[in-house]
Amino acid sequence: MTITIVGSQLGDEGKGRVVDLYGESADVVARYQGGDNAGHTVVEGGNEYKLSLVPSGAVRGKVGVLGNGCVINPDTLFDEIDTLRERGLDPDVRLARRAHVILPYHRVLDGIEEDAKSDSDRKVGTTGRGIGPTYEDKAGRRGIRVGDLLDSELLREKLEYVVPQKRALAENVFGVSMSDTIGGSSDGVEIGEAFDIDALHEQYERYGERLQEEDMTVESGEFLASRLDAGDEVIFEGAQGTLIDIDHGNYPYVTSSNPTAGGAATGTGLSPGVVGDGDIIGIVKAYLTRVGSGPLPTELGGVVGDTPDYDEQGAGENEDLAGYIREEGGEYGTVTGRPRRVGWLDMPMLRHAARTSGFTGLAVNHVDVLAGLDEVKVGYSYDVDGEEIFTIPATTERWGRCEPNLRSFDGWPEVDWSEVADEGYEAIPENARTYLEYISDELDAPIYAVGIGPSREDTVVIEHPFE
Ligand code: IMP
């Protein structure tokens, strides 16, 4: 049995809490895309762990797999593993040998390209973790994969081919000097260090040795198939969300991988049939947030400064309300600490997500955050270029011209949410249930879980696929 967890919006829907919830009964948690651009806080036994790469299940004694669709920064990986070990845990993490490796020059190039775009609306607002440049090299067939780290000579050969190209790109296209410091940092690390073949070879060969010593690499498809054959329960954990999917998101304001359910097959080495045989749970935040640039038609009030054009879309009108929801919901990036832009729930976006991934169930989070508001709105449809549309347009420019048609729901009161968690679905205030049932009807998928507070215990579970 498998469960695939997919973000239905722009990331930060609270996927981690749902992975934690169902992960208790899972044996393996596998990520299928992305890298250390994701951020997740796990609270276990009163301790808080902030992770960006290690699958959260690994904190709870499950096997964590980073599938072939992931991009892996070994620096971050070993940092997180070592920190968990220092705190008394023994995470079991396996890396697909087909997964691509993020090298220091990828991070540098990520920053350089964002800088070059900084005065225009082309800036993506990336997390700066080198994600895009690493996937570029994967598609360009010049990437370095986890399996390459295990073969010193091959690694050397590949670095000798690729690094001069990357260096020329930085120097000749972007006009960067190798003696500048990385990101203008005061710690004095020179950009040139990220392009030094000898140093890179030495460092990444060492990472390879450690991977081998700790027997951490696998052929992910084979590994996962054998675990499923043995009767294990497996969760496929998507990072980010549908609207920042490279194919189905609002290009170019996207990440460079496929968080949608199809990615769970290509990013693990299992068939679409295996993924489709299991549950595919769409994670929905009861409102909308966005880090970084791009349109947000239902925006309540912008965090000024990302993309001039789109920040204007809803900004100004409801700044106070946006600020209130941001504070109540703790809407600041886990990885970057950036304040998130806030908007009403966007049904065209959710219809698009449900079609793309085929949700068999929904988990709606942060329902408590909206408590106490007189009314709660959703963007039901859009008006654009003289017509009413019900799903997301294919071009970001057209999406940027969309005006939402809002529907209003009566608000629900602040209640003792821990009591609600104990008592179950019927204890959720009636108006909130009306709101949830509207979402479920629109997306033609049952509600499996409702998040009503920050911790895993603050969840009303209606359906548990593994039980
Ligand atoms: P990248 O993944 O660092 O290349 O960033 C590309 C876009 O995806 C930017 O708009 C980021 O803010 C966004 N993004 C990447 N990871 C996350 C995430 O975990 N949550 C929300 N947004 C993300």
Description:
There is one protein chain. The protein has helices at 15-23, 74-86, 104-116, 131-139, 152-173, 197-213, 220-229, 262-266, 272-277, 308-311, 319-329, 347-357, 396-400, 417-423, 430-443, and strands spanning 2-7, 28-31, 40-44, 47-51, 63-66, 71-72, 92-96, 100-101, 217-218, 234-237, 279-285, 288-290, 299-301, 341-343, 345-346, 361-365, 375-384, 387-389, 403-410, 447-451, 459-461. The radius of gyration is 22 Å and the shape is globular. The N and C termini lie close together (11 Å). It is an alpha/beta fold and 467 residues long. Strands 9-7-5-2-10-1-11-16-20-21 form a 10-stranded mixed sheet, with helices on both faces. Strands 15, 17, 18 and 19 form a 4-stranded mixed sheet that branches. It has a 3-stranded antiparallel sheet with strand order 12-14-13, with helices on one face. The longest helix is centred in the middle third of the chain and has 22 residues, at 152-173. It binds inosinic acid. Inosinic acid binds at residues 11-12, 37-39, 124-127, 129, 131-132, 239-240, 244, 253, 255-256, 291-292.
Any ligands, ions or cofactors bound here, and which? inosinic acid
Helical content, roughly?
Answer: 25-40%
Structural class: alpha/beta
Number of helices: 15
How many whole angstroms does the radius of gyration measure?
Answer: 22 Å
Q: Report strand order across the widest sheet.
A: 9-7-5-2-10-1-11-16-20-21
For the secondary structure, the number of strands is: 21
Largest sheet: 10 strands, mixed
Shape: globular
Let me know the average pLDDT: 92
Contiguous low-pLDDT stretches (5 residues minimum) are 302-316
| Strand residue percentage | 15-25%
Distance between the ends = 11 Å
